[in-house]
Amino acid sequence: MSPRIGLAAGGLVVSVVVAALVLLLAQPSPHLAATNTRAYDERVAIDLAPGQRRCQGGEYVPAAAARLRLTIVGLGTAPAGPLAVALSDSEGHPLSQATTPVERAGPLDIPLAGGRADADGGSLCLQNLGRARIAFEGNLTSSVLEAAPSLNGPGERPTDEVRTDYYLGGRQSWFTLAPTIASRFADYKPSWVGAWTLWVLIALALALAGGAMMVLRLALRTP
Protein backbone atom coordinates (compact mmCIF):
# COMPACT_ATOMS: atom_id res chain seq x y z
CA MET A 1 0.00 0.00 0.00
CA SER A 2 1.37 3.41 -0.93
CA PRO A 3 1.76 6.13 1.75
CA ARG A 4 -0.86 8.19 -0.07
CA ILE A 5 -3.46 5.44 0.17
CA GLY A 6 -2.59 4.82 3.81
CA LEU A 7 -2.99 8.49 4.70
CA ALA A 8 -6.27 8.71 2.81
CA ALA A 9 -7.63 5.59 4.52
CA GLY A 10 -6.59 6.80 7.98
CA GLY A 11 -8.04 10.25 7.42
CA LEU A 12 -11.28 8.77 6.08
CA VAL A 13 -11.69 6.45 9.08
CA VAL A 14 -11.13 9.26 11.60
CA SER A 15 -13.48 11.57 9.69
CA VAL A 16 -16.26 8.94 9.59
CA VAL A 17 -15.87 8.17 13.31
CA VAL A 18 -15.97 11.86 14.24
CA ALA A 19 -19.02 12.49 12.01
CA ALA A 20 -20.85 9.52 13.54
CA LEU A 21 -20.01 10.73 17.05
CA VAL A 22 -21.25 14.25 16.28
CA LEU A 23 -24.54 12.86 14.91
CA LEU A 24 -24.95 10.67 17.99
CA LEU A 25 -24.32 13.53 20.42
CA ALA A 26 -26.71 15.80 18.51
CA GLN A 27 -29.68 13.44 18.85
CA PRO A 28 -32.24 14.67 21.44
CA SER A 29 -33.13 12.05 24.05
CA PRO A 30 -34.26 11.80 27.70
CA HIS A 31 -31.36 12.30 30.10
CA LEU A 32 -30.76 11.02 33.60
CA ALA A 33 -30.09 13.74 36.19
CA ALA A 34 -29.37 11.46 39.16
CA THR A 35 -29.80 7.87 40.33
CA ASN A 36 -29.17 5.80 43.43
CA THR A 37 -28.43 2.59 41.52
CA ARG A 38 -25.06 0.98 42.21
CA ALA A 39 -25.41 -2.27 40.31
CA TYR A 40 -25.79 -3.51 36.77
CA ASP A 41 -29.06 -5.35 36.09
CA GLU A 42 -30.34 -5.42 39.68
CA ARG A 43 -31.80 -8.71 40.87
CA VAL A 44 -33.36 -7.88 44.26
CA ALA A 45 -37.10 -7.10 44.38
CA ILE A 46 -38.42 -5.01 47.28
CA ASP A 47 -42.03 -5.81 48.16
CA LEU A 48 -44.52 -3.23 49.40
CA ALA A 49 -47.56 -4.97 50.87
CA PRO A 50 -51.07 -3.45 50.75
CA GLY A 51 -51.17 -0.53 53.17
CA GLN A 52 -47.43 -0.68 53.84
CA ARG A 53 -45.32 2.50 53.95
CA ARG A 54 -41.58 2.47 53.27
CA CYS A 55 -39.14 5.36 53.55
CA GLN A 56 -35.52 5.58 52.48
CA GLY A 57 -32.88 8.27 52.88
CA GLY A 58 -29.81 9.43 51.04
CA GLU A 59 -31.78 10.70 48.06
CA TYR A 60 -30.16 13.34 45.84
CA VAL A 61 -32.96 15.22 44.06
CA PRO A 62 -31.60 17.68 41.45
CA ALA A 63 -33.51 20.93 40.99
CA ALA A 64 -33.57 20.25 37.24
CA ALA A 65 -35.22 16.84 37.62
CA ALA A 66 -38.76 16.81 36.21
CA ARG A 67 -39.75 13.21 36.95
CA LEU A 68 -38.89 10.33 39.21
CA ARG A 69 -38.78 6.87 37.69
CA LEU A 70 -39.44 3.76 39.78
CA THR A 71 -39.16 0.33 38.20
CA ILE A 72 -41.97 -2.13 38.99
CA VAL A 73 -40.86 -5.76 38.69
CA GLY A 74 -43.95 -7.53 40.02
CA LEU A 75 -47.58 -7.05 41.00
CA GLY A 76 -50.02 -9.12 43.03
CA THR A 77 -53.12 -10.78 41.62
CA ALA A 78 -55.55 -8.00 42.66
CA PRO A 79 -55.58 -4.62 40.90
CA ALA A 80 -52.51 -2.73 42.16
CA GLY A 81 -52.14 0.84 43.35
CA PRO A 82 -52.59 3.64 43.76
CA LEU A 83 -49.14 4.47 45.11
CA ALA A 84 -48.46 7.52 47.28
CA VAL A 85 -45.04 9.09 46.65
CA ALA A 86 -43.53 11.79 48.88
CA LEU A 87 -40.08 13.40 48.63
CA SER A 88 -38.64 15.62 51.35
CA ASP A 89 -35.31 17.33 51.92
CA SER A 90 -32.79 16.55 54.66
CA GLU A 91 -34.73 18.71 57.14
CA GLY A 92 -38.05 17.05 56.37
CA HIS A 93 -39.48 19.85 54.25
CA PRO A 94 -41.70 18.55 51.43
CA LEU A 95 -40.22 18.65 47.93
CA SER A 96 -42.88 16.85 45.90
CA GLN A 97 -45.91 14.67 46.54
CA ALA A 98 -48.07 12.63 44.21
CA THR A 99 -50.48 9.72 44.10
CA THR A 100 -50.21 7.64 40.97
CA PRO A 101 -51.94 4.53 39.58
CA VAL A 102 -49.91 1.36 39.09
CA GLU A 103 -51.26 -0.53 36.09
CA ARG A 104 -48.42 -2.78 34.94
CA ALA A 105 -44.87 -3.87 35.58
CA GLY A 106 -42.10 -1.74 34.06
CA PRO A 107 -41.03 1.89 34.42
CA LEU A 108 -43.34 4.10 36.48
CA ASP A 109 -42.75 7.84 35.95
CA ILE A 110 -43.94 10.32 38.59
CA PRO A 111 -43.92 14.07 37.75
CA LEU A 112 -42.05 16.21 40.27
CA ALA A 113 -43.04 19.63 41.53
CA GLY A 114 -41.01 22.55 40.19
CA GLY A 115 -39.45 25.50 41.99
CA ARG A 116 -37.04 23.35 44.02
CA ALA A 117 -33.39 23.73 44.88
CA ASP A 118 -30.99 20.80 44.70
CA ALA A 119 -31.65 18.53 47.66
CA ASP A 120 -28.99 16.16 48.98
CA GLY A 121 -29.66 13.63 51.72
CA GLY A 122 -33.39 13.74 51.10
CA SER A 123 -36.00 11.09 51.85
CA LEU A 124 -38.43 9.17 49.68
CA CYS A 125 -41.55 7.60 51.19
CA LEU A 126 -43.76 5.16 49.29
CA GLN A 127 -47.13 3.89 50.50
CA ASN A 128 -49.14 1.19 48.81
CA LEU A 129 -52.77 2.37 48.93
CA GLY A 130 -54.06 -0.61 46.97
CA ARG A 131 -55.06 -4.21 47.68
CA ALA A 132 -52.16 -5.98 45.97
CA ARG A 133 -48.45 -6.08 46.62
CA ILE A 134 -46.09 -4.00 44.50
CA ALA A 135 -42.50 -5.17 43.95
CA PHE A 136 -39.83 -2.58 43.11
CA GLU A 137 -36.41 -3.08 41.59
CA GLY A 138 -33.59 -2.70 44.11
CA ASN A 139 -30.52 -0.51 43.69
CA LEU A 140 -27.58 -2.49 45.08
CA THR A 141 -27.37 -6.21 44.33
CA SER A 142 -26.30 -7.14 40.81
CA SER A 143 -27.61 -10.14 38.89
CA VAL A 144 -24.03 -10.61 37.68
CA LEU A 145 -22.67 -12.85 40.43
CA GLU A 146 -19.06 -12.05 39.49
CA ALA A 147 -19.63 -8.30 39.93
CA ALA A 148 -17.75 -6.59 42.74
CA PRO A 149 -20.00 -5.84 45.74
CA SER A 150 -21.24 -2.26 46.08
CA LEU A 151 -22.15 -0.17 49.10
CA ASN A 152 -24.95 2.30 49.71
CA GLY A 153 -24.13 5.80 50.92
CA PRO A 154 -24.94 7.87 54.03
CA GLY A 155 -28.58 7.77 55.05
CA GLU A 156 -29.27 4.56 53.10
CA ARG A 157 -29.77 1.02 54.32
CA PRO A 158 -26.81 -1.37 53.99
CA THR A 159 -29.16 -3.60 51.96
CA ASP A 160 -31.04 -2.75 48.78
CA GLU A 161 -33.13 0.40 48.60
CA VAL A 162 -35.83 0.98 45.99
CA ARG A 163 -34.08 2.09 42.81
CA THR A 164 -34.75 5.74 41.98
CA ASP A 165 -33.90 7.46 38.68
CA TYR A 166 -34.39 11.22 38.31
CA TYR A 167 -34.82 12.48 34.74
CA LEU A 168 -34.64 15.92 33.19
CA GLY A 169 -37.75 17.23 31.49
CA GLY A 170 -38.14 16.91 27.71
CA ARG A 171 -35.37 15.69 25.43
CA GLN A 172 -31.91 17.24 25.11
CA SER A 173 -28.81 16.57 23.05
CA TRP A 174 -25.44 16.10 24.71
CA PHE A 175 -24.35 19.40 23.14
CA THR A 176 -27.16 21.18 24.99
CA LEU A 177 -25.99 19.65 28.27
CA ALA A 178 -22.30 20.40 27.69
CA PRO A 179 -22.14 23.48 30.01
CA THR A 180 -23.74 21.52 32.86
CA ILE A 181 -21.42 18.56 32.30
CA ALA A 182 -18.41 20.88 32.23
CA SER A 183 -19.43 22.55 35.50
CA ARG A 184 -19.54 19.13 37.21
CA PHE A 185 -16.56 17.63 35.42
CA ALA A 186 -14.22 18.30 38.35
CA ASP A 187 -16.40 16.51 40.90
CA TYR A 188 -14.61 13.61 42.60
CA LYS A 189 -11.48 14.16 40.47
CA PRO A 190 -7.94 15.38 41.33
CA SER A 191 -7.65 19.01 42.44
CA TRP A 192 -5.99 20.09 39.20
CA VAL A 193 -9.06 19.05 37.18
CA GLY A 194 -11.59 21.83 36.61
CA ALA A 195 -14.48 22.73 34.33
CA TRP A 196 -11.89 23.93 31.81
CA THR A 197 -10.56 20.37 31.44
CA LEU A 198 -13.58 19.14 29.51
CA TRP A 199 -13.45 22.10 27.11
CA VAL A 200 -9.75 21.42 26.49
CA LEU A 201 -10.50 17.76 25.72
CA ILE A 202 -13.28 18.80 23.32
CA ALA A 203 -10.93 21.27 21.61
CA LEU A 204 -8.27 18.58 21.22
CA ALA A 205 -10.85 16.19 19.71
CA LEU A 206 -11.97 18.86 17.25
CA ALA A 207 -8.35 19.62 16.36
CA LEU A 208 -7.75 15.92 15.74
CA ALA A 209 -10.81 15.74 13.52
CA GLY A 210 -9.72 18.83 11.60
CA GLY A 211 -6.22 17.44 11.18
CA ALA A 212 -7.60 14.15 9.89
CA MET A 213 -9.74 15.94 7.31
CA MET A 214 -6.74 18.00 6.17
CA VAL A 215 -4.64 14.84 5.82
CA LEU A 216 -7.43 13.21 3.80
CA ARG A 217 -7.74 16.26 1.55
CA LEU A 218 -3.99 16.46 0.95
CA ALA A 219 -3.75 12.74 0.27
CA LEU A 220 -6.51 12.95 -2.34
CA ARG A 221 -4.91 15.95 -4.03
CA THR A 222 -1.39 14.53 -4.16
CA PRO A 223 -0.70 13.12 -7.65
Secondary-structure blueprint of this entry?
Elements: H1 3-26, E1 32-35, E2 45-48, E3 53-61, E4 65-75, E5 83-88, E6 94-100, E7 106-111, E8 119-128, E9 134-137, E10 165-168, H2 174-184, H3 195-221
Antiparallel strand pairs: 1-10, 2-9, 3-8, 4-7, 4-9, 4-10, 5-6, 5-8
Helix pairs in contact: 1-3, 2-3
What does this structure look like?
Strand 5 (83-88) and strand 6 (94-100) form a beta hairpin. Strands 1, 2, 4, 7, 9 and 10 form a six-stranded antiparallel sheet that branches. It is elongated and about 75 Å long. The protein is 28% helix and 29% strand. The protein has helices at 3-26, 174-184, 195-221; strands at residues 32-35, 45-48, 53-61, 65-75, 83-88, 94-100, 106-111, 119-128, 134-137, 165-168. The longest helix is centred in the last third of the chain and has 27 residues, at 195-221. It has two domains: 3-29 and 174-221, no CATH class; 32-168, Jelly Rolls, CATH 2.60.120. Helix 1 (3-26) crosses helix 3 and helix 2 (174-184) crosses helix 3 (195-221). The model has no long low-confidence stretch (mean pLDDT 79). By secondary structure, the chain is α+β, with helices and mostly antiparallel strands. It contains three helices and ten strands; from the N terminus they run H-E-E-E-E-E-E-E-E-E-E-H-H.
